[in-house]
Amino acid sequence: MRPGLVVHTGSATHPGLRRALNEDSYLASSPVFVVADGMGGHEAGERASATVIDEFALFIGRTSLALDDVRFALERAREGVEHLSTSGNGRAGTTLSGVVIASVDGMGYWLAVNIGDSRTYRFADAELEQITVDHSVVQELIEAGELTPEDASTDRRRNIITRAIGASSTGDADYWLFPAELGDRIVVCSDGLTSELSDWRIREILLTTSDPQEAAEALVAEALQAGGRDNITVVIADAVSVASRPGTLLETDIDMDTRPRETAGGVR
User: Fold this and answer.
1) Which terminus of the chain, N or C, has fewer Cβ atoms within 10 Å?
2) pLDDT tens-digit map of 146-163
């Protein structure tokens, strides 16, 4: 069966300038594009994030996934991460954010998933939209009107998350399902990127860098220049072929510019 959504991808990761260990893990292989940011120290975070990614890697090669597929993978991942904590690897935990390719009546959709404070964005028509909502103390304070988004970036509580996979958290993931459009650029990242770069600067880099691999590398490089205080991971998925109706595909010329149209509980 022909896929309803085909993507070109890019990815980059770096431990940052202050961390010896990179506890981020990621997957950028159709139909899964996700980032997991581990926590726990003593290699627990690294193993927790890898455990989650290993579960989603079992889907590689599928044309699309259903919501139940993602939920079952999360259940298995949670069991695996909890086992790390009980087997002497510290209080292991990890975030997870990203998208999988889904299908509705043969048409391509994005199914976004999030737990923790890693983020998923959609860049389209020259606008950057944050799809996911952070599960963090500062986000709750923002929603309560007790903290401004500007102050949140420097608040000492910004690394305290309220939901995670593992870390004694039982919080559920959030999901969003929305149709893919030709030229969509999905950006998934750990908070090592967003703690260094504003949404405005992320948008500028995406706007001027058409190749998804080059864009991922440019974002990581600039986050390093801005301080690189944490592990930094970026995954990018560009929609280059999208079924607008069952059996019909809209495609970009892959030889041309594929830039989008101008148009928890834990402390890490």
Assistant:
1) N
2) 888 777 777 778 778 899
What's the whole-model pTM score? 0.89
What's the CA gap between 80 and 82, in Å, rounded?
5
**Which comes out higher in pLDDT, residue 75 or 41?**
75
Q: How far apart are CA 126 and CA 262, in angstroms?
A: 5
CB atoms within 10 A of CB 225: 11
Q: For residue 174, is it within any domain?
A: yes
CB 78 within 8 A of CB 92: no
**CA 87, 91, 94, 95 torsion-angle sign:** positive
Question: Which tokens go with 61?
Answer: 């090669």
Question: Is residue 140 included in any domain, yes or no?
Answer: no
Residue 142 belongs to some domain of the structure: no
3-state secondary structure (DSSP) of residue 6: strand
Please measure the distance between the N-terminal and C-terminal CA atoms of the chain and give it in whole angstroms. 43
Query: Phi, psi at residue 21, to the nearest 5°?
Result: -120, 135
